[in-house]
TrEMBL record:
This is 2-oxo-hepta-3-ene-1,7-dioic acid hydratase. The gene is hpaH. It comes from Rhizobium bangladeshense. It holds the Pfam family FAA_hydrolase. The keyword Lyase applies. PANTHER family: 2-KETO-4-PENTENOATE HYDRATASE, ACID HYDRATASE. Keywords: Lyase. The keyword Lyase applies.
């Protein structure tokens, strides 16, 4: 564990990296005793600073939902971060590439909560019952630290969250079998990635149930109206200024964005 003063210093450094668009040395290298609990505390301090500057928590994101990514990170479970309202974009947006350091895109589904949901013991059917809508989404991930990164670096860095783009059809959670939403991700007219939503822990709601139980352990939960990114079912694709992105989710619509 590290001290509260060191946690605050790490959060301040990450905030500076985000503002100046310059990555910092990994917190795990600066503070060799950094543990998972410290990393989430740093994330919370960073979020508090952003809220103090006018941002609002709009929801949460879940990462490391695939077994392959967990093994690569030497983790046995996902991680999570917060979504801030100033990082929400709609279908058709022109997004400034210079807002990020090294942005990449992932294909996901987003759940919009129709009621509050708390743990413990939350299961997939609880998530489905509490969800009002499911919408196609893209997550822009970004690193504010140097690489390679330990899992503690990723968590402290708000689970690599950069921004979210939503679009396509708004569907109710029981209208289709959301385990089998397929999508292709194209960059500049070339399909770079494809996947199916069952790749997210077997069911897109599984990660959200995990998140609710984790938030309960720290006195939190999900609130009505919040949006939750359920996790990626494709590998991340690098993006840069000038790129035009199209994500096709078949019967549930598509999302198009460009980076300027």
């Amino acid at each position: 564990m590290i001290t509260e003063k060191e946690r605050q210093a790490a959060a301040d450094a990450l905030l500076k990296a985000e503002t100046e668009r310059k990555p910092i040395v990994q917190p795990s290298r600066t503070y060799p005793n950094l543990e998972l609990e410290d990393a989430y505390k740093i994330q919370a301090l960073w979020a508090q600073a952003r809220i103090a500057k006018g941002a609002r928590i709009a929801g949460h994101k879940i990462g490391l939902t695939s077994r392959a990514m967990q093994m690569a990170s030497k983790m046995t479970e996902p991680d999570y971060g917060v979504i801030l309202d100033d990082a929400l974009y709609n279908d058709g947006a022109q997004i400034r590439a210079d807002l990020f350091i090294k942005p990449r895109l992932e294909v996901e589904l987003a759940f919009v909560m129709g009621e509050d949901l708390g743990g413990p013991g939350t299961r997939i059917y609880d998530v489905m019952r509490a969800t009002e809508f499911v919408v196609p989404a893209l997550e822009i991930i970004d690193y504010r630290t140097e690489v390679p990164r330990a899992i503690t670096d990723t968590i402290a860095d708000n689970a690599a969250f950069g921004a979210i783009v939503v679009g396509g059809r708004i569907i109710r959670p029981m209208d289709i079998d959301i385990r089998w939403v397929g999508a292709t991700l194209s960059k500049n007219g070339i399909i770079e990635e494809s996947g199916v939503s069952a790749a997210i822990m077997g069911h897109p709601a599984a990660g959200i149930a995990w998140l609710v139980n984790k938030l309960h352990a720290v006195g939190g939960g999900l609130k009505k109206g919040q949006i939750v990114l359920a996790g990626s079912f494709t590998r991340p694709v690098d993006i840069a200024k000038g790129d035009v992105i199209q994500a096709d989710y078949g019967s549930v619509g598509s999302i198009g964005v460009s980076f300027v």
